[in-house]
Amino acid sequence: MNTLNDLLSKDPQRIWSASSSLKDIRDMSYLKELSAKTDEIERATKGIDLGGKLNPNSYHLEFALKKLNHVKNDLGCLCALYPDNMFFNPEKENDNNQVKITDTVTTDDKWVDYYLCECTHCHSKFKVEEREGHFTWWSWKKA
Ligand SMILES: [Zn+2]
Known about the structure:
The structure is a single chain. It is built from six helices and four strands, in the order ααααααββββ. It is α+β, with helices and mostly antiparallel strands and 143 residues long. The chain folds into two domains: 1-75; 78-143, no CATH class. The protein has a four-stranded antiparallel beta sheet with strand order 1-2-3-4. Helix 2 packs across helix 5 (58-72) and helix 3 (28-35) packs across helix 5 (58-72). The longest helix has 15 residues, at 58-72. It starts with a helix and ends with a strand. 22% of the residues are buried. Bound molecules: zinc ion. The site of zinc ion (ZN) has 6 residues, from loops.
């Protein structure tokens, strides 16, 4: 498992890259296998400065650990994690068939205000606001 080796590598670049890619991994048997090592990963990454300025790179590691704990503890559908990560683009999730966008609401000047979508696995509904800062991000809330 390259992801595991990267997470345990103590190399900030590899940890960051593996953490970021974990966000989109949906293969449950793979996640389950990896989640058995959550404690080990937590210990190996503790105190390592991952850098990053506007948005610290540790954000991705924290989310990766949260996801692994979610899988390890059988907390159900992965869509419950959407509110914990501001980089889940609803259009991309829609294209990957993870959610279905049921409505796109725009403001008067045609910018996206929010999306309504539904998880294709458990049918939970979300309201997703699109926001611009130094980068585009999304705020997911269970609807
Ligand atoms: Zn779901």
